[in-house]
Amino acid sequence: MLLFSSLISGLLAASAEIQFNKPKIKQGELLIITCELSGFQADAKVRILREKEQILFSEGGNGNAFGSWQISGQGVSKQASTSDMAEYKCVADDSAGNFAFTERALIVLVPPSIPSIVEPSDKKLIVGKAGELVCMAEGSPPPSYTWYKQDQATGVTLKLPADARTNARSFPNSQFTVDQNIVKFLNVTESDAGEYWCEARNEAGTSTGEPVFVGVGSLNIASVVGIVFAVIFGVALIGIIAFVIFKKVTGADSDSYMGENEVFDDEGNDVAMGESYDPYEHHKGTNRQDISHVV
C-alpha cells in the first residue's frame, strides 16, 4: 500500500505546462513556445505539437525543431502568422514512468481588413419593404462593427443607434435596428436614402470603409412586367417538357404494338392488319407463264 501511494504521489508530482511568450500575439511578431516541466527526470522526452503536427522533440535537453520552426532555448520560435493560430500540446515522459500532457490555444491578432457594404448588391432599398445593409471585414479575432450615415440635409455624420426608434430626432421616420454588421430596415422610407459606411474594430486595430450611397425606390413597372414574363415562360416551358415526355411514352407503346403484330406475305412484304391476303390478286401484273393449254 505504501509503495502504491508513493507511485501515485510521484505521478501526481510530475507536470508540464505549455507557454507562449505572449498569450495573444500580433501577426509578424516573434512567437516563442516552450514546455515547462516539473518533477521529471533529466532524461525526460518532450514533444510539442501544433494540432497533430510535431514541431519539437527533445530528449535530455537536446531538441530538434521541424518545419519552419527553430530551436529557441528549451522551445521553438518563428514569426507569427495567421496559420499559427491553433491548439498546441505538450507531451512529456521519462524513464521513471512520469507522464504529463497539457494543451493551450494560441490567438494571433490580425487587424480588420477594409470593411465594405456587400448587400444589397445594387445598393438600393425598396420603399415600403423590409431591407438590409450588410458589411463584411476579415480579422482575428472577428471584428465588431459600428455603422455611420451622413445626413443628406445637413451633411452631418451620424452614428447609427441600436434602434432608430429610440432616436427619432436624428432619424425621423426611420425604422431600423443594428445587429453588428447588419442594419435591418423594418419598413424602408424615403428618409433612409443616403451615404452609409461601417467601421470594423478588434484588439489588433481598426479599419474604416468607404462611404457608399444607398438609394431608395419603388418596384417599377418594368420589374413587374419582367416578373410576369418570367412566370409565363416558366409555365410554357413546363408544358413543352410534359408534351415531349407524353409523345415519347405513347409513341414507344405504338411502335411496340405494331412490331409484335406485323404480318408479311410470301415475299416478305408487309400486309396491313385485318387485310385478307389473296396471292393471285397480289401477283396481278407480274410476268407469269400461261399453262392453261397444257394437258
UniProtKB/TrEMBL annotation:
Q: Gene3D superfamilies this protein is in?
A: Immunoglobulins
Binding partners and assembly: Interacts with the ninth PDZ domain of MPDZ. Interacts with the first PDZ domain of PARD3. The association between PARD3 and PARD6B probably disrupts this interaction. Interacts with ITGAL (via I-domain). Interacts with CD151.
Q: Which GO terms describe its cellular component?
A: bicellular tight junction; plasma membrane
- Kindly provide the name given to this protein in its UniProt entry: Junctional adhesion molecule A
Taxonomic lineage is:
Eukaryota, Metazoa, Chordata, Tunicata, Appendicularia
InterPro entries per the UniProt record, alphabetical: F11R (IPR042456), Ig-like_dom (IPR007110), Ig-like_dom_sf (IPR036179), Ig-like_fold (IPR013783), Ig_sub (IPR003599), Ig_sub2 (IPR003598)
Q: Which UniProt keywords apply?
A: Cell junction, Cell membrane, Disulfide bond, Glycoprotein, Immunoglobulin domain, Membrane, Phosphoprotein, Repeat, Signal, Tight junction, Transmembrane, Transmembrane helix
Region annotation (Disordered) ranges: 275-295
Where in or outside the cell it occurs: the entry states: Cell junction, Tight junction; Cell membrane
Matching SUPFAM superfamilies: Immunoglobulin
Q: What residue range is the signal peptide? A: 1-16
Concerning its family, UniProt says: Belongs to the immunoglobulin superfamily.
Organism per entry: Oikopleura dioica (Tunicate)
Domain Ig-like, which positions?
A: 112-213
Membrane-topology annotation of the record: Single-pass type I membrane protein
Keyword Cell membrane tagged: yes
Per the UniProt entry, what is one GO biological process? regulation of membrane permeability
Major subcellular site: other
Q: Where are the transmembrane segments?
A: 221-246
Pfam families registered for this protein in UniProt: Ig_3
